[in-house]
Amino acid sequence: MSDNAEVPLRQLNQQTSRVLARVAAGETVTITKDGVPIADIAPRGALTGRPVYPFRTDPMGELDLPDLGGPVLDDDEIEAVLRGMGIATDGSGTDD
């Protein structure tokens, strides 16, 4: 038995108990749909090599930012402001 196998979604639907028995035996199973990997089923506590985050990390579309009444800055102006933040201008290592 290999450490990682691909199982089509249809097979998972039809043979869930068999697929989960393989996982219980220590195998990590990659579920595919139309040949494209869509999920991994791994034994509990197994390291999959990918971090699991407790929050969404996918793009969520346009941000609706409120207008706070500040000046409208273009990208170059924002960059100029951020470039100077936290950098000593007199070479002393402090901002004073």
Description of the structure:
By secondary structure, the protein is an alpha+beta fold. It is built from three helices and three strands. It has a three-stranded mixed beta sheet with strand order 1-2-3. The N and C termini lie far apart (66 Å). The model has no long low-confidence stretch (mean pLDDT 80).
Element layout with pairings:
Layout: E1 4-8, H1 9-14, H2 16-24, E2 28-33, E3 36-41, H3 75-83
Parallel strand pairs: 1-2
Antiparallel strand pairs: 2-3
Total number of strands: 3
The gyration radius over C-alpha positions equals: 25 Å
Classify the secondary structure makeup into a structural class. Answer: alpha+beta
| Largest sheet strand order | 1-2-3
Uncertain segments are: none
Q: What is the number of helical segments per DSSP (H or I, 4+ residues)?
A: 3
Principal-axes shape call: elongated
Whole-number mean pLDDT: 80
In percent terms, what proportion of residues is strand? 15-25%
The biggest beta sheet is recorded as: 3 strands, mixed
Give keywords:
96 residues, alpha+beta, 3-stranded mixed β-sheet, elongated
Outline:
This protein has 96 residues and is an alpha+beta fold. Helix content is 25%, strand content 18%.
